[in-house]
Amino acid sequence: MDAMRAFCPRPGCDTVVQVRAASPAHCPTCRHDFCSQCNQEWHDGLSCEAAAATSSMAGAGAPLLPDSELIKLCPMCRVPIEKDEGCAQMMCKRCKHVFCWYCLASLDDDFLLRHYDKGPCKNKLGHSRASVLWHRAQVVGIFAGFGLLLLVASPLLLLAAPCIVCCKCRLCNPNTKNLEEVDEIESISPGREDDGDEITRARYLSD
Fold first, then answer.
1. Taking Cα atoms as reference points, which of 40, 36, 44 lies closest to residue 56?
2. What confidence tier does 99 reach under pLDDT thresholds 50, 70, 90?
3. Residue 6's beta-bridge partner residues?
């Protein structure tokens, strides 16, 4: 998600590299210099398209460009992803970002896959209508189950709330019992002092 950092594109090396504009990104782990825009070898003085065409003509394979039909870059971490089969809902193994293969739109919050109901990607998901409806029914059922559980548990929470919130309740707080014992002791102690005064007065009279 940080535009100033990128993953090293060399296989087996997942080092995060600092990116600077108009300069090659240098990996400190494998010593590999690459372009952070197209993840190719650093091409000084050439655009990414020209460098991709040169490498393709040299037999280096298909260019790793976002508009390629075979390989596209993850819109989040820019790692090359190849789609050989499956539906159009793609998930990057590196950053776990979910996106559409055709338009690279984010599908992280599209739990019901409404993206494929309209627009240029309509009916391009790659699944039958029945499977899409079954998927949506499962998602709605999960949310409905959580809502029903919360609805059932809410009366119990309301009944238990007074005991939880009222920390100064006499039945729940043992300190109130100690305060009552202190009050009883204080109520008894003045009588004992009066008895002591009467005893001392009796001694003075006897003397």
1. 40
2. very high
3. 17
Q: How confident is the model at residue 197 (pLDDT cuts 50, 70, 90)?
A: low
Residues 6 or more apart from 121 whose CB is under 8 A from it? 88, 100, 102, 103, 105, 115
Residues identified as active-site: 87
Average pLDDT over residues 56-62: 48
Q: For residue 190, is pLDDT > 70?
A: no
Query: CA 80 to CA 50: how far, in whole Å?
Result: 18
- pLDDT per residue over 66-96, tens digit each? 455 778 888 888 788 888 888 888 999 888 8
Tokens of 124: 């391009």
- CA dist 155 and 5 (Å) reads 50
What residues pair up with 79 in beta bridges, in sequence order? Answer: none
Exposed/middle/buried for residue 38 (C-beta within 10 Å: 0-12, 13-18, 19+): buried
> 136 Cβ partners below 8 Å, 6+ apart?
112, 113
Residue with tokens 């990116």: 19
* Tokens at 43, concatenated: 């091409």
Burial 88-116 (b: 16+ CB within 10 A, else e): bbbebeeeebebbbbeeeebeeeeebebb
CA 182 to chain centroid, in Å, comes to: 53
Provide the pairing of β-strand 16-18 with 5-7. Answer: antiparallel
What residue has token string 């990057």?
92
